[in-house]
Amino acid sequence: MKIKLYFGMEDAIKKSGIGRAFIHQKTALSLNHIDYVTDKDSTDYDILHINTVTPDSLKQIKQARSLGKKVIYHAHSTEEDFRNSFKFSNTVSGLFKKWLVYLYSMADVIITPTPYSKSLLESYHISKPIYDVSNGVSLDDFNPAKEQINAFCDLYHIHPEDKIVISVGWLFERKGFDTYVEVAREMPEIKFFWFGDIKLSNSTSKIKKILRDLPENIILPGYVSGDVIKGAYGRANLFFFPSREETEGIVVLEALSCKTPVLLRDIPVFDPWMIDKVNCYKGVTNQDFIDLILKIVNAELPSTVDEGYKVAQERALVNIGKKLKAIYQKVLEV
Question: How much is the mean pLDDT over the chain?
Answer without folding.
Answer: 94
